[in-house]
């Protein structure tokens, strides 16, 4: 296999970023000021091809801030904690 066809795990894990809709809009929707609406971020995430991979990345890297994969900080925290 030619060396230039080898992709690292990191490259595969981050390939969803190439189609990330948030990269086309700017961070203000996804990292809003406290108390601001995240409705627009969630709407964009719902249409994003990389939503599942983005959410998996956020959960496995313990991303604490902002909207990732369509979930807010609190929603990701509840997901990590699981059912009670
Ligand atoms: S799911 Fe949302 S936060 Fe994740 S890459 Fe897509 S638009 Fe960005």
From TrEMBL:
The lineage of its organism: Bacteria, Bacillati, Actinomycetota, Actinomycetes, Kitasatosporales. Pfam families: Whib. This is Transcriptional regulator WhiB. InterPro entries: 4FE4S_WBL (IPR034768), Whib (IPR003482). Residues 21-78 form the 4Fe-4S Wbl-type domain. The gene is whiB. Belongs to the WhiB family. Coiled coil: none annotated. Its cofactor is [4Fe-4S] cluster. The keyword Iron applies.
């Amino acid at each position: 296999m030619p060396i230039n066809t080898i992709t690292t795990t990191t490259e595969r894990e981050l390939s969803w970023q190439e189609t990330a809709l948030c990269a086309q809009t700017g961070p203000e929707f996804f990292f809003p000021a406290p108390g601001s609406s995240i409705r627009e971020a969630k709407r964009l995430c719902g249409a994003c091809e990389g939503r599942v991979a983005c959410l998996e990345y956020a959960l496995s890297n313990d991303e604490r801030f902002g909207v990732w994969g369509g979930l807010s900080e609190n929603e990701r925290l509840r997901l990590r904690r699981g059912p009670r």
